[in-house]
Amino acid sequence: MRGGARSSRAAPRAGTAVTATLLILNAAEVVTMDGPAPDATRPDDAAPLGCIPNGAVAVDGERIVAVGRTEDIERTYGASPGAVRIDARGAVVAPGLIDAHTHAAFLGDRAHEHALRLRGATYAETAAAGGGIASTVRAVRAATDDTVEQALRARLARMRSFGVTTVEAKSGYGLDTETEVRLLRAIRRVRASGETRVFSTFLPLHAVDPDLRSMPGGRERFVKRCSDETLPAALAEAPDFVDAYVDSTGFSVAECRPLLERAAAAGLSARLHVGQFADVGGAELAAEMLAASADHLEHVSDAGARAMAAAGVVGILLPGAAFSLGQPMPDARRLRSLGMEIALATDCNPGTSPTENLPLMATFAVRQMGLSIVEAWWGLTRAPARSLRRDDLGVLRVGALADVCVLDLPTWEALPYQFGSALARYTIVGGKT
Ligand code: NIG
Ligand code: FE
User: Fold this and answer.
1) Could you tell me which CATH number the domain at 97-387 has?
2) Distance 351 CA to ligand 1 centre (A)
3) Global pTM?
4) CB of 170 shorter than 6 A to ligand 1
5) What angle do CA 91, 97, 100 make, to 5 degrees?
6) Strand 92-95 to strand 84-87: parallel, antiparallel, or no bridges (unpaired)?
7) Residue 309 and residue 175: Cα distance in Å, rounded?
8) Most confidently predicted of 8-12, 15-19, 110-114
9) Half-sphere exposure (CA, 13 Å, Cβ side) for 108?
């Protein structure tokens, strides 16, 4: 099984200046991902990869100007004065990988909860015993803005070592208005550094604020405060999306709807936590709201999955969370057969999925969730890009942003095979190495 070779696209249009600022040359394969979406009935068809053997990529500034065979790119762009040249011999060059569901702005660890789970405690039990989201909230509230920012930056740097150039990061460990805003500000500051491309998501309905939880009427007050007070304050930090935890351990559809509707009126699309522990109708809500994504999906009915597919809602599967909780993996094959486009993400968070390794999620997906390797590649590139509503990310084509990873792999098939290693020889974000 090999990716079909594509014709060279190195020839510049007449009249355009033929210069490049960055040349990536001699790749064993360039996996452009510039092919048709995977067909669920022929999951091993490699056409979606748009693979070019002995390939190269030319970049001018922050965008790609050519993708093709090395000899053609050399001929057209090789003489560009001052161009940085990267030799990708023996490597796979691919779009920078996209982790579209993380809670990476957190402090502290919850290793002890994991240890308790290994001895039989459930996630709900450890949360009720003072652990859970509330314990991370305490750590974040006690920290300075700088500390939060540094923790996020360090995490993103480690993610880049796996080839990840775009990360979505959620709030949700503040829960009161002030700390939610501080988290979004930290994410915004880290985005401004440009080291990783960052999308921010406002997630106030993650858990009930521990300060309100035990008060009579506290839960209702919290839910109302999220849309009446926290949302307007959060908008000042320009989040890209809104999220809510629609689950038996989270919030009901009725509790989530007012926040999501007000956020939609302010221009924020939803990406929702749906069905991690139980199906409470989140998939149907995501479809109705034309959400960008519905994530987790360990528990989702056929009707809910079909509704998502019909509404174009991307399903984001998070095998790290199922793995760490000792739950069955989400059934990706079933969801594909119901028409869903599938992305994979780490869910990077201290409670259920502390991993920073996105390619490892592809290993879980092909071994334990029924995805093909081609579908897994799609799930790390094009599908998460679509969930972020971007068609200039997750693909190597003329005009796309020059977010690229150079992976120490002999061929694309080796991505889920070589599991656990930090594979990136280079990561490039917006043309910068
Ligand atoms: O996606 N379940 C909701 N949110 C996270 C867990 C967060 C936490 O436990 O800190 C998740 O798995
Ligand atoms: Fe999550």
Assistant:
1) 3.20.20.140
2) 6
3) 0.96
4) no
5) 165
6) unpaired
7) 31
8) 110-114
9) 18
